[in-house]
Amino acid sequence: MTGAWIILAAYILDRLIGDPRWIPHPVIGMGKGISALERTIRKRVSSDHGLKRAGMLFPIVIAGGSLVLTWGVLYILGLVHPVISVIVEVVLISTTIASKGLKDAGMEVYRHLRERDWPAARRSLSMIVGRDTAHLDEPEVVRGTVETVAENIVDAIVSPLFYALIGGAPLAMAYRAVNTLDSMVGYKNEKYLHLGWASARLDDWANWIPARLTALLLITGAWFMRLNAKGAARMVRRDARLHPSPNSGFPESAVAGALGIRLGGYNVYHGVASFRAYMGDQTRLMESEDIVRTTRLMFWSAGAFVLLCWLVTFGIWTAGGALLWK
Fold it and tell me: What are the residues whose beta carbons fall under 8 Å from the beta carbon of 236, sequence distance 6 or more?
């Protein structure tokens, strides 16, 4: 189990520098590996049944390969010097987190809204969502941003830290590979329905516990921020399972309840309207400041989880010490 110091250092590193473009990111390598594997499979397999069976190769090769490769690198570096291994592990875990990137993306939309530059706000939103944004008004731009920040608290912060706590950088990197697989091949469309099913299912399983933990963290954060913590808890119980994703509804409903807003509704994808179940009650119209509030909730939740990592580690040390003294 990775020490709390390593997790804290990784989180701070991400908060400070995020993902500089001049540093090669592991996700880029994962993406290239996924694309190469997909090309290889499609050259050899054409039937739906064959693609479904071949789809299991993605988690095995990409996620499993990421875990083994990371473990191997850290093992070899540990033989050179343990400090080098620890430093590299901190850096690798930080690459699986995206708290700064998520905050920057949301605040970029917020700044454009504050400047009343609607076209720029819509363009910035289009970089982080899949829906059409060209004709959205201010409340809908805010909704899209809040939903994106809320949903990604799980896979951009809590999940990678959760797996880093359990299995260090190797397991955190394996989780990032699973998440990347879902974003590239885990679609329920004609192209990936059979090939990407295993990747999508594994991503759902990997985020199951972190998503529900995130809801609890958001409720706690709402209480500390003097938002509507009771409303957040109530909306999680009432609305979380209405979301088409088994996990995304938990952070979104918690944020909706904490802020007293309603998320969900109609989105347009490539000109086709799609309705997503409502999350929360519309006690007021959404405003640009809701993006700031959601970002603060995100950081409260992340900080609370890092503290939780410390408590878990301390508890294990204490229990281990007690056993040794018996």
Answer: 215, 219, 250, 253, 254, 257
The tens digit of pLDDT for each residue in 304-313 reads: 999 888 888 7
Distance, first Cα to last Cα, the chain:
23
Give residue-wise pLDDT tens across range 117-169: 999 999 999 999 989 999 999 999 999 999 999 999 999 999 999 999 999 99
Q: Which residue has the tokens 């009771």?
A: 230
pLDDT digits (tens, 9 = 90+) for 158-200: 999 999 999 999 999 999 999 999 999 998 888 999 999 999 9
What angle is formed at CA 91 by the lines to CA 198 and CA 317, rounded to 5 degrees? 85
Distance of CA 71 to the CA centre of its chain: 22
pLDDT for 248: 95
Query: pTM of the entire structure?
Result: 0.92
Sign of CA dihedral 282, 286, 289, 294: positive
Share of the chain above pLDDT 90, in %: 85
Of 59, 82, 57, 58, nearest to 3 by C-alpha is 82
Encoded amino acid at 26, one letter: P
- Express the helix, strand and coil content of the chain in percent, nearest 5 each: 75, 5, 20
Which sequence spans correspond to the domains of the chain? 4-325
